[in-house]
Design brief:
The protein is mainly alpha-helical. The protein contains eight helices and no strands. It is globular and about 40 Å long.
């Protein structure tokens, strides 16, 4: 948890690339899998925003898909997830599965 918080704090201080690096190290440990699904998904929603701010909307979209796989309610019901997914869609072309998630949530029309 401390390492995840450190990653998000680093992002808030403006060093998105270092934050992503810290996130990747923290999520590759066994401790990541022991966290409750909702906590993992919430962190991924936050880190998706960091990817967006770093200019990588494709990775941001993929990160939201992973969060949705882990804990769908976190992505489908949380306003911050909706805002992040909307920003991903506005940033440029997205893979079909990201667009499908936005449609399921009600952010786009079929």
């Amino acid at each position: 948890m401390v390492d995840l918080a450190r990653a998000l704090t680093t992002a808030r201080l403006g060093d998105n690339h270092r934050a992503i690096d810290l996130h990747q190290r923290a999520t590759s440990s066994d401790a990541w899998q022991r966290l409750p699904a909702e906590h993992r998904a919430a962190h991924l929603i936050d880190i998706a925003r960091v990817h967006l701010d770093a200019g990588n909307h494709h990775t941001a979209g993929r990160t939201l898909l992973i969060a949705d796989h882990i804990a769908p309610a976190e992505v489908r019901l949380q306003p911050v997830a909706h805002a992040t997914l909307t920003a991903v869609l506005r940033a440029g072309p997205t893979p079909a599965d990201v667009t499908r998630l936005a449609t399921i949530i009600g952010l786009t029309r079929t």
